[in-house]
Amino acid sequence: MSGGELERRYRRLLACYPAGFRRMYEHEMIGVLLAAGRGRSRPGVADALNLLAGAARARLGTLAAGRTDPGWRDALAVTSLLAPFLLGVLLLGQDLGWMAGLAWHNWNGTAGPLVPLWPAGLLLVPVALGLAGLRRTACGAAVVLAAWVTVQAAIGQRLDEPRFAGYLMLLAVQAVALAASPGPRHALRLTTRRGVAAALPWLAITAYAAKIIPGHYPVPLPVAEAGTAVIAAWALLALASPQARRVLVLLVLIPGSAFAASLLTFASVSFPAMSFAAGQAALYLPPAGLATLTLVAMLRSAGRKAQETRL
Amino acid sequence: MSKHAIQEPTFLILTALAAGAQHGYGIMTDVARISDDRVRLRAGTLYAALDRLRTEGLVDVDREEVVDGRLRRYYRLTPPGAQALAAEAARLQANAAVAVRRLRKLGLPAAGSA
Predict the structure, then answer these.
(1) Which residues of chain A, if any, have pLDDT below 50?
(2) For residues A60 and A70, what is the distance between their CA atoms, to the nearest angstrom?
(3) In this complex, which of A28, A58, A67 lies closest to B24 when CB atoms are compared?
(4) Which DSSP state fits A46?
(5) Looking at the partner chain, which of B42, B47, B56 has a beta carbon nearest the beta carbon of A25?
(6) Which of B50, B55, B72 sits opposite A31 (nearest CB)?
(7) Among B24, B37, B36, B31, CA closest to B7
């Protein structure tokens, strides 16, 4: 096999790296790989794995502090703050009693109004830990909660309930975002108070528009529809920002892969039910994406400033 | 960075560059030589480290050459890079000195000591 063929194969592996990294190093890496791989006809398995791992690290931005492109870490940090926010919206919007039943399978749903609040508090523990600066502990807490909710749902035979899928998805998103970013504190550093204050009503309207908040909440439908239209236009403008595109990709891809996995896992249990759950959960994606784009658009200038001072 | 111990591959890359500016493949072969073939850097590891060291200001691009139509970029140690390497070398030396002293007390010869 010719050297050209080997080079083509190395290039295909290097294509996994982020564009900025490739622009800087691709040419010399090809030179080094070809020099080190003299006499080979195809990339060695260890080399290929090493390149793929390097590309994954470069893409996740977990290469230690001060990477040239902190965009993904910033995007994940914002995600780690938004996922629990949407979790909170879900908890307030959907009946807390149902959640209490999920968090503790034999809760009978007849206790006083304060009883169902504790699972809500429980689900917000990771973000509280994250805001307290305990990012790794927060990530662990999110994983434990996801496992706990799954076990309780299994005992209570609620695995096929769409709402379970929604909670599980947001906990998974949160865990991934906490693991691979500097966490919600970093997101707050990128954030201006005015930005958050301005974003909150948008987040609420978006959540309503996607029927996350049930119909009996007293927001007139035309208001919600007008709000949705404005947010959609705003989101389209926000797409011009690479940062906003990153967060959108994250919010679609992370739950997307979580769902692919959950469908495979539960396929033998109840495939139609889980498909329905996935379909229902897809309802949460547009508001999550739109809310993120809105928030990011508002934080963009602050984020860019922080990025410039770091470079 | 200087607060944490430097990982061995990074330490060896900085050590390789302490001899003068080198290109990627030169660093790889030099690191293998310094470590008695114990540490064999792969391209993915080397360039992840170089990228990080550049953003940390410990290493910089010295010059670029084109050899046989291939780009060769030479890297050199910056003054902060030399400082970080010196601090890490001193730390390792101090640790090793304690280990050697204690092994002698035990009556065990420390490998490599005269």
Answers:
(1) 1, 62-69, 95-99, 104-115, 209-219, 266-272, 274-277, 279-280, 282, 301, 303-311
(2) 10
(3) A28
(4) H
(5) B47
(6) B72
(7) B31
Question: How high is the ipTM of this complex?
Answer: 0.85
Nearest by Cα to B35 from B5, B8, B69: B8
Q: Residue ranges per domain, chain B?
A: 8-105
User: In a mutagenesis test of the B interface, which of A22, A32, A47, A63 is the best target, namely the one with the most B β-carbons within 10 Å?
Assistant: A32
Chain A residues with beta carbon closer than 8 angstroms to that of B73: 28
Q: In this predicted model, which residue has the larger pLDDT, B55 or B16?
A: B16
Q: Could you tell me which of A175, A180, A178, A104 has the C-alpha nearest to residue A143?
A: A175
Residue pair A60/A176 in contact (Cβ under 8 Å)? The answer is: no
Answer whether B16 touches A (CB < 8 Å).
no
pTM of the model: 0.47
- Using the Cβ of B23 and the Cβ atoms of chain A, whether some distance falls under 8 Å is answered with yes
Candidate CATH numbers 3.60.15.10, 1.10.10.10, 3.40.50.620, 1.10.3720.10; the one for domain B8-105: 1.10.10.10
Q: Is the dihedral of CA B67, B55, A249, A138 positive or negative?
A: positive
pLDDT tens column, B49-65: 998 899 888 999 999 88
* A55–B44 C-beta distance less than 8 A: yes
Q: Does B5 touch chain A (CB under 8 A)?
A: no
Which chain A residue has the Cα nearest residue B52? A67
